[in-house]
Input
Amino acid sequence: KDEALEEDPEGVAKPWLEEPIDWKKVKETCRNFTAFYSDDDPYVFVSDGEVLRKKLNAKIIIEKGKGHYLKRDGVMEVPNVVRELLGFIE
Output
């Protein structure tokens, strides 16, 4: 697991929560956005995806039981993320 996250979850998230996002610049940098959420993530809530959907017209994908997408036993399997990425390059 991510030791920094376990030791200080608020400190790790602080820049993500306090730095303003220049949505215009983000949209100029990329055309397509997809955000993955897990229904049991203790730090990032599925409802947070609504901001990305509104600001970036992001596609929101909700997966079950992925937690905070941390590596488990040294292996991180995210086949839906791989499929989504491959769809962008086809």
The beta strands are 34-38, 59-63. The radius of gyration is 14 Å. Helices lie at 3-7, 9-18, 23-29, 49-56, 79-89.
